[in-house]
Design brief:
single chain; 2 helices; alpha+beta
């Protein structure tokens, strides 16, 4: 399996202010902004990212793990009896993902860009 990145997902009731905190204070750039979800990235190391979620998407709080083949990871997770908290699906913003709970209870959003 090829992991392309691991990104913490934080939930914010004030996503614009949270975005501005990371941009203005810490020097991140906005890499993606869909309104309800914003990803900021380091300009020097674009894989150093934080995703800010302003709605009830179950991936926050949690972590997103980018993989080369999300279907293969899903096919491995299901027979292990892991709790799938969000089914495998294609999202309208260009990713394929599913979410599962790791043993300590954190939600892991396993994702691949299409």
């Amino acid at each position: 399996m090829s992991v392309t990145r691991a990104v913490p997902n934080i939930k914010s009731d004030r996503p614009a202010e949270t975005r501005d905190f990371f941009v203005d204070l810490l020097g991140f750039d906005v890499a993606m902004d869909l309104g309800w979800v914003v990803t900021v990235a380091s300009p020097e190391n674009p894989t150093a990212q934080v995703t800010i979620i302003g709605n009830d998407d179950p991936s926050a709080p949690g972590i997103s793990v980018g993989v080369a083949d999300v279907d293969a990871v899903h096919a491995e997770a299901v027979p292990r009896g892991l709790e799938i908290v969000y089914p495998l699906r294609d999202e309208e913003w260009g990713v394929r993902r599913f979410m599962l709970r790791e043993p300590s209870g954190t939600v892991v959003n396993v994702v691949a860009h299409r």
